[in-house]
Every structure is written in C-alpha cells, then in structure tokens.
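Q: How would the structure tokens look for this protein?
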Amino acid sequence: MINIAIVEDDENDAKLLESCLIRYFEESGEKCSISKFNSAQTFLVVSKRFSIVFMDIELPDMDGMTAAEKLRQTDENIVLIFVTNMAQFAIRGYMVDALDFIVKPVVYEDFIVKLRKAVARASGFGQHEVTVNLLGEGVKRINISSIRYVEVIGHTLSYHTDGGTYQVYGTLKNCEELLGSGFVRCNNCYLVNLRYVYSVKGYTVYVDGEELKISQPRKKAFMKALNNFLGSGG
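A: Here is the predicted structure in token form.
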C-alpha cells in the first residue's frame, strides 16, 4: 500500500489528480491510499504518513516551495512532485529534491510517466531507512545509505549523514542492532558505515574525509569486517 498526499487548494485540480491516481492504480493492480489537503500547514503536521506527495506551488497559507523546504528538514525520503503552471520554480525544485514537475492542466498520459518514477522510488525507500526521535525536534526518517558514521557521547547519539548531523537519545549497542550489517565499531565511540571508509592507516580510519581513531582491542575485528565487506563487492 502506497500512501499518497495531494496538497492542492483548487478543488477541481485536486479531483483531477485524484482521478488520474485512481485510474493508474486500478489499471496496475497496485494498492494506494489517497488523502487531499487544501493547506500546506495541515499537510506538514501529518506528512510522515505519506510516501508520495503532489504539491501545488500556489497555496493560500504557505507557497508549495516553502512547504517543501520545511518538509525536507524532517523527511529526506518522501517523493515530491510539484503540480504547477509556474515554470520559473523549476530550478528551485532541485534544491528540495523534487522528483519532477507536472504542468497544469494535468494530462493523464504525461502524468503516469512521472507517477511510475515516483512509485519506483517510493517502493525502494521503506526498506532502507530508520526512524529516529530527534532531541527536541520530533521524528525523522533517515536513509541508512546516507549515514557515514554514528558517534556516542554519554547517552546522546549523533548520526553523521550526507544531509547533516542528527542527535537522538540512545546507546551505540541499540544503534548497531538497528542498522545491521555494514556498520562496524572502530572503538567504543564510533559506529562506521563501511561504504564510506576511504582508507586505514595504523589506528586511524578515514571516513569520507574525517579521521576516526581505531582502538587497539577493536582493530582486528574492524579490519576483518572491512576486508570481508570489500571482498563481497560492498
């Protein structure tokens, strides 16, 4: 089941999008759930329920581009498609990782080409992300492949990712179990994503430009895991 949101204040445009979605999923035999919102702020409150969102640019309370920027602060993975007749926003769309633009009025044959891409991307995310409770900032979904390493200080975990650093309360042991294979401790403070290891020199591992220390007790196990990872084509 794919949960899809339509954020559109024009009732006719929203109904047209909904009918295109219903037609596509009936023809494909896949299942979806569709929710409509006429306000960006209302959508943002419940955005984590959805895998795909069709966002109008011209909205009464907050323009779609601003809403998308707020959305990306908490959700890197939701698939975003803008629906607009304002072509000048196309360049800004790449800044919020919009998958595509659909120009009004929506034409079904053009629509399904972009919808197929959205469904393919959305179907690939759920199995490759973790949901964490950020300290004082609510819930966030993080793509596992974007995590370079996790650092622990006291009871605070810092997820260092391609998109920034996010702090949560927890233990490195629980984090290790959550992230699974491909993540190995180099000492008691760091859990490293082996995909980002550039090189190892002595007791230093270079992770995407950063230097992390390898403890003597963990050196052998870390190097074995790294060699196995590289040998498996990881």
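The longest helix spans residues 11-28.

Helices lie at 11-28, 40-45, 64-74, 90-95, 108-125, 172-179, 216-231.

Upvote if useful.
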